[in-house]
Amino acid sequence: MSKQSNAAPLPTYSDIEKLPEQWDLYKKLVSGVPEGIAVKDFLLGDHWVLVEAESGFGMGLNVHGGSGPFRLNNSIVGMELRDLAALSTSWNFQEASVGVAALNAWYSTPENAEAAGMKIEAKGINDAFDLYQELCCGKKVTIVGHFPLIERLADECELTILERDPHGDDVPDPGCEYIIPYQDYTFMTGITLTNKTMPRLLSLAKQGKSSVILVGPSVVPSPILYDYGVDCMAGSVVADPERARAAIAHAEHSGIFKCGVQKMRIERPGWLD
């Protein structure tokens, strides 16, 4: 793990409170983490990040890229969880990944997710695309991020896949400006919070009144997101921390869901009524 350098200091909760209104989504999510919760540990694996705090465990995808040095080391143990969550605003995407996992160490604990209306997915449900496939039949559907086997929806709906590294029939992600306002349903990877594209994508979806479903372990399941047009947060909870920690340390990828991480969803009340 990298040592802290002489680069700019890490952002804290008080720092991000001074950011302009474009950062409001991040500011509200971070300010929703209570004071007085200490960070106990973090693990940066090849694919996933795990943060342990006094409130519980949170995870997210380890996203590479962005800019600037990675400044974290074990000195973050004991710091305020709210301050670590402020790293979600970092332009170093690995740092931001830790910040998102820190947010989930509050919002995605089993207790807090259950209070927000969590539904645990039954065995055999692969992902939110399976869950809402019937809902999307015959509709205009855009998916932000090329998820595995997502082409299976192509025969069911008018499907567009927006992807930063496009292949096949994918549309490069700047196409969001031209496509999302005209969709019935927009599925978005939770990584969009990490790479800072989520606020604009949600704004585009609101323009056309598209239903928005966030998908993946990086999803922060906070009711705060309802104010930004999110209808469903299909994320995960760390149900067995020790198994999850071992799986992350051993570079498990999709197998993480057999190793202590449970898929779940939280829907906006009345969304499907």
- What fraction, in percent, of the residue positions are helical? 25-40%
**How widely separated are the two ends?**
48 Å
How many distinct beta strands? 12
Estimate the mean pLDDT confidence. 92
The gyration radius over C-alpha positions equals: 18 Å
Describe the largest sheet.
Answer: 9 strands, mixed
User: Would you identify the regions where 5 or more consecutive residues have pLDDT less than 50?
Assistant: 1-5
- How much strand? 15-25%
By secondary-structure content and strand pairing, the structural class works out as: alpha/beta
What is the global morphology?
globular
How many distinct helices?
A: 11
| Helix and strand run | HHEEEHHHEHHEEEHEHHEEEHE
Structural notes for this entry:
The protein is of the alpha/beta class and about 270 residues long. The chain is built from 11 helices and 12 strands. The protein has helices at about 15, 25-30, 80-85, 95-105, 110-115, 130, 135, 175-180, 190-195, 200-210, 240-250; strands at about 40-45, 50-55, 55-60, 120, 140-145, 160-165, 170, 185-190, 210-215, 230-235, 235-240, 260-265. Strands 4, 5, 6, 7, 8, 9, 10, 11 and 12 form a 9-stranded mixed beta sheet that branches. Strands 1-2-3 form a 3-stranded antiparallel beta sheet. It is globular.
Q: Main attributes?
A:
273 residues, alpha/beta, globular, 11 helices, single chain
